[in-house]
Amino acid sequence: MNFATVIGHDAVKQRLMNAARDKRVSHTLLFLGPEGSGNLPMALAFAQYMICENPGEKDSCGTCPACIKMAKMVHPDVTYSYPVASKEKITKPRSVDFVAQWRQAVLANPYLSYNDWMEALDLDNKQGLISVDESTDIISRLNLKAVEAPYRIIIIWLPEKLHTSAANKLLKILEEPPLDALFFLVAENYEQIMPTILSRTQLVKVGRVSDEDMFRILHEKHNLDKIAARRMVHRADGNYNEAMVLIENQEVDNDLNNRFLVWMRHCLKLNAKEISEMAGEFSSESRESQKNFLKHSLEIARECLLINYADRSLIRLEGQDLDSIQRFAPFVNLNNAEEFIHELNDAAFHIERNANSKMVFTDLSFRLYRLLQVK
């Protein structure tokens, strides 16, 4: 993909192109930005610009053989590493084992999230990692000469998922790569990356998509009317991937609101039978669905605080959703909100680490019952 397909961030694009023209590109770049910001599309666009045969002042040409191959993610001198997990007969998984799924997923949505990728792989609730076997594979790629381009570019998506042994194995090659090799690390969580990895990178910060750029793309590309586009900008909060999910799944979003309220009613009444049944329902779903529900619950908690204490213009809910959540809002207040949010985050942490989900949700329900009594 080229820079024109990356939403906003014009200043970042210009700095990257200036560095390329002046031959001042660091051998290891860290494209850092939150989910849906466009850090992966930015890295892909810059990789295309670096190997384009006729780069222009504002973008790659898009028509040379290198650009055409990059558009299909099949250029032999640009390779990718990303979190994977064992599956069926693949006991020591590497990125190359899932390259067809990777191309399909990224070409369909270059703003995809980690959860989107895990669902695309259908890994039965396993967590994706970048293993030491992948690090060995990366090093072996660098033993090969560039086939067509002046550079060999390795794009590592989510280096925070590097296993410790995998990260340690890459330290030397990241610090002293071959002269024609470039590493583009694409990360979302700075704090989760090993300091020894960070110290070997040059930061390219990609912030959230601005409200103006988000409004433009939703109005022009997705054909939302101005009122609907403004509402979606507010809810997406700079995350283009989230905006697309909201557009496609507004009914699902409503269902999550209703499910949350039903759950809260059972917690308020301390209805052990209903709590147990709901915990059983949660446990029958995928880990990603469970984490998504907890994330949505955190968003509702935020809305409750805004309803209770903030300027009404900041509230993302509207219509029937706003009416129903507004009735629940007093139960999340300044005296319990911090602990309420902590309990939801703690549950998501344990789900992420494959704890028994029925036990997690049952325990969480009883903890929330206590907090909901706080006035």
Give the topology string: H per helix, E per strand: HEHHEHHHEHEHEHHHHHHHHH
**Helical proportion, percent range:** 40-55%
User: Major sheet, described briefly?
Assistant: 5 strands, parallel
| Low-pLDDT regions | none
Structural class: alpha/beta
Q: Tell me, what is the CATH class of the largest domain?
A: Alpha Beta
Strand order of the largest sheet: 2-3-4-1-5
Q: Give me the number of helical elements.
A: 17
Write the CATH architecture name of the largest domain: 3-Layer(aba) Sandwich
CATH fold group of the largest domain: Rossmann fold
Summed up, the domain count is: 3
Quick one: how many beta strands? 5
* Oligomeric state of the chains in view: single chain
Q: If you compute it from the alpha carbons, what radius of gyration comes out, rounded to the nearest whole angstrom? A: 23 Å
Topology:
Blueprint: H1 10-21, E1 28-32, H2 39-51, H3 65-71, E2 78-81, H4 99-108, H5 114-121, H6 132-141, E3 152-157, H7 164-175, E4 181-187, H8 195-198, E5 202-205, H9 211-220, H10 226-236, H11 240-248, H12 250-269, H13 272-283, H14 287-309, H15 319-328, H16 337-352, H17 357-372
Parallel strand pairs: 1-4, 1-5, 2-3, 3-4
Helix pairs in contact: 1-2, 2-3, 6-7, 9-10, 10-11, 12-15, 12-17, 13-17, 14-16, 16-17
